[in-house]
Amino acid sequence: MNEPGPSSEFRTTQWTRVLQARGDSPEAKAALSDLCAAYYGPVFAFIRRAACNEDTARDLTQEFFARLLARPALDKVDPLRGHFRSFLHGAVKHFLADMRDHDQRVKRGADQPHESIDAGTDTSPGLQLPDANATSPEREFDRNWAHTVLERSLAALAEEHKVVGKIEHFDALKPWLTGDIENHSQADAAHQLGLNEGAVKVAIHRLRRRFRELVKTEIGRTLKDPAQVADELSCLLAALGGGV
């Protein structure tokens, strides 16, 4: 059985390309745009915690990325500590603070009306007092970031199997990656794939190993130095509260 082959070499990461050019070159801008598109979800989830409704959150998220991509935003980023996750998290926090300041100026009559992140209505009370039992926005951002990494890695693994004509093999064994095995058994998977159970156990082990490699590769795309992958993976696992 031919399995998709791993690639152990970290190519120049997208975040590295961004930092090297500090956002000036078309390549750097394209790399930043790709990263922003890939990690839209964590930013939206973070902003949704502050916005009065989902539509406002989507508008603010679009505005955040439009501003980020339209002007240099990397002058103060330290390349030696260049985690895209940290940069994006800090940038969106500053953006929300700026928007709150803008809202306050609007209320004082110093500007034109703008989409507010804290104005309430009878049916939408705006910003709420934080629930002491709720997950903090920072932890929610990291949790959504971690899920995005896993989803993109899973999609990459599926594509690898599709390319070599093994997508049915991947679909049969995918539950052992996602944990959705309540209604699946290795015996059933073996029967479906025409294998014995021993071969299925080996295939699941290889699939999990390749998945971990792809998770590390996906993490590496957002770092300056591949040596930082282990630390970032630890953060991802902590955000998930478990293992990959």
Describe this structure in words.
With about 240 residues, the chain is mainly α. It has two domains: about 15-130; about 135-244, no CATH class. It has eleven helices and no strands. The two termini are about 25 Å apart. Residues about 5-10 and about 120-130 have low confidence and may be disordered.
- Count of domains: 2
Helix and strand succession? HHHHHHHHHHH
Distance between the termini: 25 Å
The multimeric state of the shown protein is single chain
Mean pLDDT: 82
Bulk shape: elongated
Determine the structural class based on helices, strands and strand pairing: mainly alpha
The main sheet comes to: none
Quote the beta fraction.
under 5%
Helix share bin: 55-70%
Q: What is the number of strand segments? A: 0
Radius of gyration (Å)? 22 Å
Uncertain ranges = 6-10, 118-132
Number of helix segments? 11
How does the SSE layout of this entry go?
Elements: H1 14-21, H2 26-38, H3 40-48, H4 54-70, H5 84-107, H6 137-163, H7 167-173, H8 175-178, H9 186-193, H10 197-220, H11 229-240
Helix pairs in contact: 1-2, 3-4, 3-6, 6-7, 6-10, 6-11, 9-10, 10-11
Task: State the main characteristics.
0% strand; elongated; 2 domains; mainly alpha; 11 helices; 244 residues
TL;DR?
This protein has 244 residues and is an all-alpha fold. 63% of the residues lie in helices and 0% in strands.
